[in-house]
Amino acid sequence: MTKIEAIIFDLGGVLIDWNPEYVFLDAFNGDREKMQWFLNNICTMNWNENQDAGYPLVKATNDLVKQFPEYENYIKMYYGNWEQMLGGAIEGSVKILKHLIDNRAYKVVALTNWSSETFPIAKKQFDFLKWFEGIVVSGEEKTRKPYKEIFNNYIKPF
């Protein structure tokens, strides 16, 4: 049986509730269908992941505004109101994290696919992000997926 030496936590959706709907449902006056169309066709997850991989937020926003000038105000809201997309800590997961940190039986690290520009917003808001032995931020690594080679600095290779 393999001994577990390290535990890796994802941040968005695991420890921190992150959802663009917190901004855009209000922006579209509760019209979920219009909001979903906008997020599926203008500020898409693919577009967001490009910034999560290191593309500058201002440049990405300006690029998209040039493509879709009629949606300029909504596009600018995406990163302009990013902090409002943070719904709060997912308390059950944070309790598990706290238990593992206090236990000290494992190396506990984290990863996030957030931009290097948005991650500091979350880091400032959530004190438990200081508990980790290391955090891999895809925007700092300039990658969409934190491949196992990146973790070699934090834990033994897989």
Automatic annotation (TrEMBL):
Key word Protein biosynthesis present: no
Magnesium among keywords: no
Top-level taxon in the UniProt lineage: Bacteria
InterPro entries, sorted: HAD-like_sf, HAD_sf, PGP-like_dom2
Annotated keywords: Hydrolase
Record-level Gene Ontology MF annotations: hydrolase activity
Protein name (Swiss-Prot/TrEMBL): Hydrolase
Organism encoding this protein: Jejuia pallidilutea
